[in-house]
Every structure is written in C-alpha cells, then in structure tokens.
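Schema walk-through. Below, the input block comes first and the output block second. Nothing else is stored per chain. Lengths vary across the set, and this one has 178 residues.
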Amino acid sequence: MKKLLLALVCCLATSAFAQTQTETSQPAKQSKFDFHLVANATGKHQGKFLQTDNFRFTYTPTWRLGVVAEVGASLMLSKVDGIKDWDNSTTLGGGLNMCLCTFENINKTKFAINLTATMGSTVGKADWNHTYYDCSLSLTPRSALPWFGINAGFRHCNSHNNAIRNFNSLYLGFVVNL
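--- output ---
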C-alpha cells in the first residue's frame, strides 16, 4: 500500500509540475501555498456518523492544478444494540486540487470553486484502521483574511477491521483559510 501511494503521489506531482497554461485569457500566476482547516460531518449511514477534521496544505505551481497534503482525525460514532460507541484515528493523506473557476460577488470578494481528490490512511495505533478515498467540491473565498467556505463531497472508507464494515458517505462541511 505504501509503495502504491508513493508511486501515485510521484506520478501526480510530476503531472502537476508539467502542466502548461493553455488558455490565453487567463493571466499567468505565481506558485501559491494555501493552508486550510477542513471539517466535515456525514449523515447517519449503516447506523454510524463520521466526522473528519483535516489540516490541508496545498501547493499550486500553476494557475489551476495543485498538490495536496493533509493530516487529520476521524471520529466514527455508532450505536449498536442500544450501546453508544466511538472509534477515533489519525490520518495522513495526499492528492490533487483543481480550481474549476473563480468569480467575484457584488462586494468584489473573489471566490474559487475547487475540486479536490485525496486518499490516505490511518497512522499509529488507531481504534479504527482504514484507508479513505475522498472527492469534494468546495467554494472558498480568495482573501488574506480567514474566511469560511463550504465543502461537500463523497468519502469511501475501506476498513481494515472485521468489526467495522467498509463505509461510504456523503458529507457537508466548512473550509477555513488560515
């Protein structure tokens, strides 16, 4: 699994650096570093609720495509036979971020719509060992101030534990520019 993840990150990183500007209407931009706090929560699925909190670091060497690294925590709340339980874990992952479009509102605040695809796995001793695959769409303000954005997506958790089945979920959350 570690070799597959390393190979995927190397392939995706080289494609991000090799991307050239194809639209002449879009001005060339400098490479950019972004740091976000992303918090998501699911609805009830298979009797479980999943909440994830991630610190996401994005490096965008071109004007559209960026490389993502994230560290976070997952908390799964469940109720089985009337007994409430929780399982928590620390996760480490990476992926790609693509800016689909940018626009300004009436107050001249710039916003971006981003599509982010990440994958990762638990690290250390975790109550719930799993690998996750995540795809999200977010609306974030482009400002130096820490503003809130919204985030919606789909997450598949491939469980490494026989007591907890694989988990698919739709989620909503928020993104904070730090």
